Amino acid sequence: MALSGVVGKDRGELRIHENLEELTTDLADYIAKISETFVKERGAFSVALSGGSLIYLMRKLCVAPFNRTVDWAKWHVFWADERVVAKNHSDSNYKLAKDVFLSKVPVLPSHLHSINDAVSAEEAASEYEFVIRQLVKTRVVSVSEFCDCPKFDLILLGMGPDGHVASLFPDHRVLNVTDEWVTFITDSPKPPPERITFTLPVINSASNVVVVVTGEAKAGTLHSVIEGSGGTGSSLQPARMVQPVTGKLVWFLDKEAASKLDNAKHS
Ligand SMILES: O=C(O)[C@H](O)[C@@H](O)[C@H](O)[C@H](O)COP(=O)(O)O
To answer: Which CATH number fits the domain that encloses residue 49?
Structure first.
């Protein structure tokens, strides 16, 4: 059983798990339920993935009962951030998701919306935004009622030890981009340097945002993001800027990552 807590309107809900086994089951169940809701409501489910350990932690979606109960043909998969490398390169977030998860479930190949890996980071970002705009027109992706942004049904993120989410890094100019849906960087502090990423307004327009954080090494950063002033010195951690306007934010944590949260101790 996950220990649950709510940490104030803008910081979302915490789901703290005893171990990774519990976390992976709860995460698969949560994603499957959100998928079912949107498939019923609008006949499609738009979900954006990141890279890193998140993908391995979604692995239970590939096995019973989820592999059979989820309506995979209605899934449209996007990447909240992607490294600008060939799709068969070991750094590719697409390859990671394909190898670990997407190749094991019957998602339609035409519903995997990956970036063009044959152009520059700048071109890949603007082409990807164009692709999303077309899918907003056909309502495969919903549209925000509040701003010129797509409204993804679910965006799944990990958090780096520096508090980055997607490819939005502390103190980077990408944090200030508000007039684009997808932007690019060529100087990522975490290799590889060239990446595309959803901007903060797009992340914060989603109906659901899930951030998955595990391991003791991220406990201090997580405490600062959830309960602290948000950064060390002058930097504001990008994870703290994840504040969906009307959507729901849920943190999936293991007890090690949550070990420095007062909220967890008192729940
Ligand atoms: O492209 C990337 O580098 C990832 O999308 C990245 O943003 C990742 O999600 C975090 O760094 C957390 O990764 P871990 O959970 O593996 O630490």
So the answer is: 3.40.50.1360
